[in-house]
């Protein structure tokens, strides 16, 4: 299997509903990692750098859905959140190695947990040093469009109008091959989904295809002018995926405590409120194995 890059994996290169997590682990694991968190009074959490709307700098302050969720989880544990930014590596496996189980070659403290990791069984088997757990959001792809130029959200009937995508993403690959490459010359490649949305709002593009959460957050109130519809991408590995967390393999006791916190935050509505504060609709993950 080829290396899994963050862009491809976080854009949905994962099998829907396949997962590995705490439900498969007996509760006889060592309690040492959780005890350490409680003793020092802080939960160290790694989040991706420059990853709107989940973790990004705003006026010099680290904010975002994953940042707020990390603080809420720490609150449920009765400790403070110590949040660190993680620069995305070449692959998600690299990110896990640096953040939660081996550390950087330059030193530094490991994170107790890392946010926004694809919750996928095959990927979990490829990374036995880490435990994937706590799925907290179900992501899908969406098409936002200028209704005057693109009258329908049906991908098969997209007109030959400019459409913006994040370069080397699943939507990019899909459109390049759609109907023999009919729209190939109309694709606008952008560095991020947010940049793609700006192409739409400026009029340079007639539509944008990207993960729903990033489209919603980038459009904000402008969504009234640019209708958003969730879509499936026939022929691709997936059109939706679950987002979860990861920790070191010997920290399974921490898995249960954080998992319980996530469940409580979902049940009491805190999770939905956090997502809504960034203009995103929270979708709880479906039941997974």
UniProtKB/TrEMBL annotation:
The Solute-binding protein family 3/N-terminal domain extends over 42-282
- Which keywords does UniProt give here? Plasmid, Signal
Question: Record's InterPro entries?
Answer: Solute-binding_3/MltF_N (IPR001638), TAT_signal (IPR006311), TAT_signal_bac_arc (IPR019546)
Note the SMART domains from the entry.
PBPb
Q: Does the keyword Oxidoreductase apply?
A: no
Query: According to the lineage, what is the superkingdom?
Result: Bacteria
Which PANTHER family does this UniProt record tie to the protein? ARGININE-BINDING EXTRACELLULAR PROTEIN ARTP, MEMBRANE-BOUND LYTIC MUREIN TRANSGLYCOSYLASE F
Official protein name in the record = ABC transporter substrate-binding protein
């Amino acid at each position: 299997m080829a290396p899994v890059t963050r862009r491809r994996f976080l854009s949905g290169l994962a099998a829907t509903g396949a997962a590995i997590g705490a439900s498969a682990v007996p509760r006889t694991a060592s309690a040492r990692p959780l005890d350490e968190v409680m003793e020092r009074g802080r939960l160290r959490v790694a989040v991706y750098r420059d990853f709107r709307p989940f973790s990004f700098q705003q006026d010099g302050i680290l904010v975002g859905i994953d940042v707020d969720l990390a603080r809420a989880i720490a609150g449920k544990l009765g400790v403070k959140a110590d949040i660190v930014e993680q620069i995305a590596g070449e692959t998600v496996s690299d990110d896990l190695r640096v953040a939660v189980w081996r550390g950087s070659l330059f030193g530094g403290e490991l994170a107790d947990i890392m946010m926004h990791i694809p919750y996928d069984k095959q990927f979990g088997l490829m990374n036995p040093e880490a435990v994937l757990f706590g799925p907290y959001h179900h992501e899908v792809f969406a098409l936002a469009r200028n209704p005057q130029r693109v009258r329908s959200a049906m991908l098969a009937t997209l007109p030959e109008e400019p459409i913006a995508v994040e370069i080397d993403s699943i939507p990019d690959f899909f459109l390049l091959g759609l109907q023999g490459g009919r729209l190939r010359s109309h694709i606008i490649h952008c560095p991020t989904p947010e940049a793609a949305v700006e192409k739409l709002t400026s009029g340079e593009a007639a539509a944008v295809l990207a993960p729903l959460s990033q489209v919603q957050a980038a459009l904000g109130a402008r969504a009234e002018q640019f209708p958003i519809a969730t879509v499936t991408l026939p022929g691709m590995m997936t059109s939706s995926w679950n987002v979860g967390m990861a920790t070191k393999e010997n920290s399974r006791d921490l898995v249960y405590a954080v998992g319980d916190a996530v469940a409580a935050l979902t049940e009491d509505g805190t999770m939905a409120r956090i997502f809504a504060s960034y203009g995103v609709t929270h979708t709880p993950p479906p039941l997974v194995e």
